[in-house]
Specification:
By secondary structure, the protein is mainly alpha-helical. It has 18 helices and seven strands.
Length: about 500
């Protein structure tokens, strides 16, 4: 990894003096125009679109691999003879390593060659994901260890990839590309269920389900090496010149914690991750038990288990993900000029609206599987409004040289308090309830049903967090734009904006 970009940017974000915008005191100290003009880095639109396509392909495989485990969860529980809480630990250890390493990759991503970091992380991901498919029934601990190591690769990619897109595009183009990129979260997740269940059914061995994405991932690694650039940070906003970082990690964190939009939206993202993590991991198993409870199928005692609900839920996840993300992004564009804080309001409506739908779906499963899927569809559609919008919020309220750190800290928080623990929490509650009536065969369904009720309540809490974000986002967005656009743009807005001090050596200019 090279500690410096190849091109010296025109704008430098340093740490020598103070900068004030309204009542906000930023840890950013100066925006200094360099005396000499350097050659710009020009990345053609065609190359930029190709890079996004490569990143989207890898993102698809990223989430497909993550939810393949959920697609074959009944097989894994039967193979290793483990309880609900132990099964949920498979996802928890993966997410835990993911969140612990994300800050490290965020720090590196703001200072070193991002492409090289992603290549190294993806290589680790391919090896460990493939290795987990060879674990035998006597080595459940090894499966847990390998799943934890998979998180290393995913932490490097998920932290850095969105920031590269942010440096290739700006404005509505950036929103569109972020939409496309985040569409592959639900699409990949849904394909993970379908692929996992389908391969397990065809081969009669769930291990093969874990080998598909690593094979396809080799193609992604080659494409990443040859087709993905490493643009200067802030290239899109500064017309290829970029922004240079000259701040410590401590200053970066202080800056982020003072950004109220970032803090409250991160808590909203955390609630979203909690809900989607628990539902994504347990819904196929929950619906399978519901069918057994209704007498529609027999309990799974030997492989292969009935994977009908993994197929259906996977398809629902794909469709609702595409529709919801497109609808959320469309609403953001349609109302963006009239309602400056529309993005967090969309996220709030999505979570608050999904909560009653999930509540109804959980209870109606005792009577009708088709009706359950209807409410799951509506609930997932509303949650999916948030995917692209949440990512866009971070990119426009944070300056380019701190976006990787912002992504990393948000990932750490949302996984630590979100989907790292939510599947395990649901599993622990389910085991506790089931152990109260161990002799009742149908109680395994009801115990999981009651434990899933935590999801709608957390969804309501997340909606409130996004409502708080809407109070501060307009001011925070203006500040980030002013810091990146530089003096020329600031002079144009001098009549309407508060003065900003620009420091260049011993000279200070107020504009």
């Amino acid at each position: 990894m090279q500690p410096k970009d190849e091109v010296t940017p025109r704008w430098r974000v340093g740490s020598g003096s103070s900068l004030r915008y309204g009542a906000f005191v930023s840890s950013l100290s100066s925006i200094t125009p360099r005396a000499e003009e350097k050659e710009k880095v020009t990345i053609s639109p065609k190359r930029a679109y190709v890079a996004v396509a490569v990143l989207c392909y890898i993102n698809l495989l990223n989430y497909a691999e993550r939810y393949t485990i959920a697609g074959v969860l009944p097989h894994i529980q039967e193979f290793f003879q483990i309880s609900d809480s132990m099964a949920a630990l498979i996802q928890t250890v993966f997410i835990s390593s993911f969140l612990l390493l994300a800050p490290l990759f965020g720090y590196l991503g703001d200072r070193y060659n991002r492409k090289h970091i992603m290549i190294g992380g993806l290589s680790v991901w391919l090896v460990t994901a493939a290795g987990s498919s060879f674990v035998t029934e006597s080595y459940f601990w090894l499966l847990m260890l390998l799943r934890a190591m998979v998180g290393i690769g995913e932490a490097s990619y998920s932290t850095i990839a969105p920031t590269i897109i942010g440096d290739l595009f700006v404005g509505t183009q950036r929103s569109t590309m972020i939409l496309v990129f985040y569409l592959f979260i639900p699409v990949g997740s849904g394909l993970g269920y379908i692929t996992g269940a389908g391969v397990a059914a065809i081969t009669g061995d769930w291990h093969w389900a874990l080998r598909i994405t690593p094979i396809l991932g080799v193609v992604g690694l080659v494409l990443l090496v040859f087709l993905c650039p490493n643009p200067p940070r802030g290239a899109a906003e500064t017309h290829g010149e970029g922004v240079k970082v000259e701040s410590s990690y401590q200053e970066d964190v202080k800056y982020l914690l003072k950004n109220k939009s970032y803090v409250w939206s991160s808590l909203g993202v955390t609630a979203t991750a909690f809900v989607t993590g628990a539902l994504g991991f347990w819904t196929p198993a929950f619906l399978s038990r519901a069918r057994v409870n209704l007498g529609l199928q027999t309990p799974c005692v030997v492989e292969p288990c009935d994977s009908t609900d993994s197929y259906i839920f996977g398809a629902v996840t794909v469709v609702t993900g595409i529709l919801g993300a497109c609808l959320g992004s469309g609403l953001s564009r349609w109302f963006g000029e009239k309602v400056p804080n529309v993005d967090p309001l969309i996220c709030a409506v999505g979570l608050l609206g999904a909560a009653p739908c999930l509540f109804i779906a959980i209870f109606v499963a005792s009577a009708s599987i088709p009706t359950t899927y209807v409410f799951i569809f509506i609930g997932e559609l509303l949650i999916s409004l948030n995917w692209a919008v949440m990512a866009d919020i971070l990119l426009y309220v944070i300056i380019p040289t701190r976006r990787s750190t912002a992504e990393a800290l948000q990932i750490s928080v949302c996984h630590l308090l979100g989907d790292a623990g939510s599947p395990y929490l649901v599993g622990v509650i389910s085991d506790a309830i089931r152990n109260s009536k161990p002799e009742n065969q149908g109680w395994s369904f009801h115990s999981l049903k009651y434990s899933l009720l935590v999801c709608p309540f957390v969804g309501i809490l997340g909606g409130l967090f996004f409502l708080l974000t809407s109070v501060y986002i307009t001011e925070d967005r203006k500040e980030a734009a002013l810091l990146v656009e530089g003096p020329s743009q600031t002079q144009q807005d001098a009549t309407s904006e508060p003065p900003i001090e620009l420091s260049n050596g011993d000279k200070t200019v107020n504009i």
